[in-house]
Amino acid sequence: MEQTTLTTRIRVGQGLYITLAFLFALFVIAQVFTAGMAIFVGAENWLKHTTLVHILGLNVPILMLITAIIGKMPRWAFWYVLGIASLVFGMYFSANFIRVTPWVGALHPVLALILFIISVSVVIDTWKHIMKK
Q: In Å, what is the CA distance from 3 to each residue of 6, 8, 9?
């Protein structure tokens, strides 16, 4: 009985982890889209871009960390979360430090590209890990 509960808890944790990882990858795509809307359609879309990052930016990685613990994910899953959180911090830094050093703002889309690649890698690696079992 105890083993079944543990297995169910681990499966739920892993299921939530991959769901959050997929949500985060979609979030990155939405962020790129809203930035494009702000540049090519109208500046009023910057509000959508900034609101979305304040809602999901660090909240999803924190929830991913919690579900990684619950799901007893391998060590690489925790490194992914640390990498994602660090890149989100870098995105905040590159967006807000441009008044001091303008070239730092040019890192913003580069960091977004790296964040997208890592977020997709998290989904793929987690899927392989879950399906392996």
A: 5, 9, 10
The whole-model pTM stands at: 0.89
Ranges of the chain with pLDDT below 50: 1
Compute φ and ψ for 101, nearest 5 degrees: -135, 100
Q: How far is CA 70 from CA 66, 76, 122, in A?
A: 6, 15, 17
